[in-house]
Amino acid sequence: MIYLYGAGGHSKVILDILHQQSRPVQAILDDQPSPDRPKIYGVPVRQASLALAAIAPSQGEWIVAIGNNRIRQKIAMNLSRQGYRFTTAIHPAARIGLGVTLGPGSVVMANAVINPDTRVGQHSIVNTGATIDHDCVLGDYCHVAPGCSVCGQVQIGSGVLLGVGSCVCPGVEIGAATTCGAGSVVIRSLPPNCLAYGCPARVVGYQEED
After folding, report:
1. Whose C-alpha in 70, 87, 133, 166 is 20 to 30 A from the C-alpha of 59?
2. Which residue in the list 91, 123, 134, 143 is annotated as catalytic?
């Protein structure tokens, strides 16, 4: 059995991936489920705290279906502490190269490409049409947004967000929890916890650490 945590738009995309894989979802949990939407594509949506009390950790596998990195991390860590296990979801139209590793809880959307010997951490998202070239390292709780291009031998720290259509040049390192704005072209390494955007991307501010 598979359970999703989160009932927003990102959850619908993951639900579709699992449908394409012929892997049925037992239920979708949400902290504040909408009373107007008791089901999503036939899958029941349940209030999270009530449902978790009735689901033993041994009953199935989970994906935290939330696009926001910090929220996804918080929920995944809470579930992990309670002993729940995680699975991955890879769309059949994605291409995964030789030697690629994908951490538990991570998802790869339609038409994404991950080339050989790249390592993707836990609970990370490689979104629709994104490409990650060879020998890259993508940390835990990252989100590579739709249409991103990550060149070879790039090192991306945990919790990084690459905005829609951004590009990261070969050999660049991006520090943990950094956000690169949509359409950014990252030609040199970036420090942790910063906000950068532009062509070329420049640091325009810093974000508070958790």
Report:
1. 70
2. 134
